[in-house]
Amino acid sequence: MSGRGAPERLGQPNRAAMHASLWEGVWSNGSENMMVPFIPMYALNLGASPALIGLVSAIPTLLGNLVQIPAARLAERLGHRRLYRLGNAGRLLWLLPGLLPFLGLPTEAAVGLLIGLLALRTTMISMAAPAWTALMAQAVPMRLRGRYFANRNMLSSLAALIGSALGGWLVRLGGYPAGYTALFGLAALAGLFSFINASRMPEIPLPASPPAAGSGTGDRPPATPSVSPGAQLGWRERLRGAARFFGPEQPFRRYVLTSFLWTFSVNLPAPLFAVHFKQVLGGDEAIWGLVTASAMAMQMVGQRYWGHRTITVGDRNIMVLAGIGAASVPLLWALAPAPGWAFGVEMAGGLAWAGYNLAAFTLLLRLLPPGQQAGPVAFYNTMVGVAQGLAPMLGGVLVGFLGTRGMFVFSGVLRFLALTLFARSVRVPDTPAVELKHLRPYWLRRRRSRLGDRHPPSSAHSS
After folding, report:
1. What is the dihedral angle through the alpha carbons of 347, 351, 354, 359, rounded to the nearest 10 degrees?
2. Residue 124 class from Cβ within 10 Å (0-12 exposed, 13-18 middle, 19+ buried)?
3. pTM for this structure?
């Protein structure tokens, strides 16, 4: 069978799907990072208090992730490709929040409408997440996942770097509200290109179940379904199937629980970094855009570095090692005395987060059997989405008692607690032992090898 959307042999990559997903990721990350880092500052300009800024971050995230489990069920009926395209259209909605300053609304009404528009956009995009995960699990063979997602993430990080730097420059050039409105429009345009590439995603058939005995199919291979094999199961059968992943000895169960605590601790002060940078350290939007861009630049370096080590080090070990760096970021923010220090903190964080996010995704796919990712991934995304939604709400309340620096310390302590629980409880078979030589950059290893060739060890002489 030939053609762009034709299924390929088992274990072979679907090049069309990989190409479409790569460029969708580039444009979507450019669109997101053009606006998302500036949403807290935009809300500040609308007149929002720190508590309201917590709601601006929390409510869209919470509502968006609550749709993940229903979205997985919907994907089984509509097809993963169709839902992936539908959800990606949410990126076109960036244009609407940029019109709020011109409506003459009171602060509470403007912030409430901002929350509603962001919630609608986030909900649509979140619906596509389980479908995209299932499509990628089928399109990218296990042996290529580390390299492919590292390259995809590296290009996406480049787009995010350009988007965040461009966002800071545009806001500084146009000010409020014109600069923000232009930025929302540009983010919507990048979202349009993301949607175009998502529309090029071919249909990827999921693995067919073997024919039942006596079905009369003879030696003919079973027809490959275009939707999940579980679409026709009743709720009782679906719950029984899902329960297999949540037994006390299942690593997926422990992975979900520790991820919930980790995500909660990460998002507790999430919208406060921009507020702290502007109000406490005295920075402005343009410098904040450059700070965000510096983190993206280090993520690009980190994707390259960690991507080569997914096999030799193992994704679980990478999560632990990179997680130490990610857990230290808020503690370093608490110590920063001036805006310039934010560059070093965010660059260290970018390197750590590149490894953690890459390994977290590949480990999630490895813990689940092929063809059964959509439902459990939707449950995982819902759990971490609830943490993403609840944490900023609590953070907006606690900041009044602890201050931003106190919130950063609290977040750092919780992150190290979650990472310790993960390291102690999530054990994955065939995980290699960590050796220092596997962590050295390749250029350093080649240099040591050349030095060894120049000075070979002397051989012992027998008497």
Report:
1. -150
2. buried
3. 0.65
For 291-321, letters b (16+ CB in 10 Å) and e give bbbbbbbbbbebbbbbbbbbeebbbbbbbbb
| Rg, Å, the chain Cα set | 24
Comparing C-alpha atoms, which of 376, 388, 276 is closest to residue 332?
Answer: 276
Cα distance between residue 296 and residue 329, in whole Å: 15
Q: List Cβ neighbours of 232 (8 Å cut-off, separation of 6 or more).
A: none
Q: Number of helices and strands (H, E) in the chain?
A: 17, 0
Match 């490959």 to its residue by tokens: 224
Q: How many residues does the chain have?
A: 463
DSSP string of 187-222, one letter each residue: HHHHHHHHHHHHHTPPP-PPPPPPPPTTSS-TTSPP
DSSP code of residue 176: T
Task: Give CA–CA dist 332/235, Å, rounded.
Answer: 48
User: 204-250 pLDDT, tens per residue?
Assistant: 665 544 433 333 333 333 333 333 333 334 444 444 545 555 555 56
- Three-state SS for 191? helix
The helix or strand, by DSSP H or E, that contains position 358, with its residue range, turns out to be helix 341-366
- Per-residue pLDDT tens over the stretch 256-309: 889 999 999 999 998 889 889 988 898 888 888 888 888 888 887 887 777 777
- Select from 363, 383, 382, 364 the least CA-distant residue to 373: 364
Sign of the C-alpha dihedral computed for residues 129, 78, 1 and 209 taken in this order: positive
The distance in angstroms from the start CA to the end CA of the chain is 71
Element (H, E) at 86: helix 80-88
DSSP codes, 217-282 = -TTSPPPPPSS-GGGG--HHHHHHHHHGGGSTT-HHHHHHHHHHHHHHHHHTTTTHHHHHHHHTS-
